[in-house]
Amino acid sequence: MATSKLSIINDALTLLGANRITSLTDGSTESAVMNQLFDSVQDAVLRAYPWNSATYRRQLAASTDTPVFGYSYKYQLPTDPYCLRVLEMNETTTLDVWRVEGRFLLTDAGTCKIRFIGRPDSLGEIDSLLAQALAARLAADAAYTLVQSNNLSQLMYQLYASKLAEAQAIDQIESSRDHFKSTRFEEVRNNALGTGIRFGKAYW
Asked: pTM here?
């Protein structure tokens, strides 16, 4: 079965031993809780790592509204797909200085090509292991509300950490060595900051 919001939610409910839902709008407590959590959990998991299956490239058009100070240009971040995190601008070999403020990228460069993590239009586009990690994180965040169990919540966070590591390891294999080096930095940072796994939050 193709990955979808419904399938990921039902995978999470199965992990919790809770009732599966028949649709996203079936009126059940499970569907209400999962719908409330899903978008923020999805964005946090996608934003926390440079996933190959959620990476896109775009050339941005400069805004006519230039920055008040500090930079010469600003560029509107993509909305299709919705940009969750800019990974690089104009390839990493350049010396362009840039920063993201709000929904704009500010820079002195007269052209702007970015590689970014985006929110997929269809969850069928994401890797199956990433979908499993997303289901585990969703189960962790929903555990107390649905089954009133802090212990199960902690177990789900541990499962999420395991699924996340598995998905990242396979993701790295499908990239060149340069990408492997950059994603190893992601792992070091994630370990140092804990990636919010213990408390169910992402800190960037």
From this structure: 0.82
